[in-house]
Input
Amino acid sequence: MAQVVAFRPSPATEGTGTLLLVDARTSTERRLLESWAAAEHPDAEMLQQDDPGLGARLARDDDPLVLPARVTWLPPRDEGGRGPADALLLLDPRRPNARLQAVIARRQPDRVQITVGAPARAGELRRRFDDEEGGGRDALAAFVCRQATLACDRAERAVIGDRYKVPRLVAEQIAASARFREQAAALAADLGRPVDEVLEYAESCLSELATVQSPLAIDAFRGVLRPMHARAWTVRADLRSLERLRELNRRHALVFLPTHRSYVDPLVLAEVLHDADFPRNHLLGGDNMSFWPIGPLGKRAGVVFIRRDFGDDKVYRLAVKEFFGHLVAKRFNLEWYIEGGRTRTGKLRPPRFGLLHYLAKSIENGQAEDAMLVPVSIVYDQLPEATAMAAEQGGARKRREGLRWLGSYARRQRRDAGAAHIRFGEPSSLRKALDEV
Output
């Protein structure tokens, strides 16, 4: 029998008015959930998230306790990081295919756990829906399913660790909010364009920005890009400061603002955070780096490719502001390089405040309570790419990023270049800074 993890209802929440809202992708998962339900909640009603009758069930007056649940598949105990070949073959031990699930459940039951998310009464969910979105039985069912998915995600992190904390349904949640639709309608009136047209474009901008993360993609992304830094430097990081940041991260989103000296800055920093079981940052980068395989894989591993120039595109700017605000409100961490490019001299370049402006707006208008800005220093004993940067500084043409460039860059990183030193500065409250202006 599968183990039950995370939330277990207290006697005060038990009773005949319990609706088990399950997310079963396969017949094996459904069988496991049915067996668990029969043992743990014999009097409860069980519905699949995609059941067409969910909206009607929620509309009844009996106010059931909605209890979300799913099957969590754990990797083997000796499982290491996943490599790029696993991604290409879709071999994710955390999401085995239907045939493997039956075998694992029979032969390795310790790898099967039922994850139960925190429950809520149907009436409470309806009130939250009215406050955030409003309108329609089908929309209520979709809202409740999103909340169930997020509740199970939060519970599942107790098992798989914070390093795999990933956002889910971001574009869908923002696009469905009454706040976003009202702002899009006001912008449409200001631009003299049809509301439906502006909403459709705004939703496409959100989809362009939002990452679709998975543990497999995160591990594969690390595996693909590891040759760019693993042999070159021994990383020496300020781990004591990280522990202080971990405590702060329980209350606020962190915005890491590192110095920018090398293409590998985000890779080195990501390894430090991964090894410390920190949630993966949403790394903001220019769309010039979205070439294959970095683009498709990076988007599934937390890289947000932002247009390098979106000028007077007010709809895209709205999408960026709402996207930032949503992530920070949900305590997902951000990372970007405020200098806007690598230093050619070793000195800091003047900061660019465009992205910080959008983040500040989301806090000023109350979408997010606060964000903590974390300065990060990344310094290398030696930097192999310094020769190319010096040539560019003297007028040489910058080589365009692409697959051939990636291979050449990785080959140059094979020799020992000493140490990479990472230090985390004192975090500061963006809310406090805004209040003092």
Notes: DSSP finds 18 helices and 14 strands in the chain. Residues 344 and 393 are 7 Å apart (CA to CA). Residues 137-160 form the longest helix (24 residues). The longest strand covers residues 371-380.
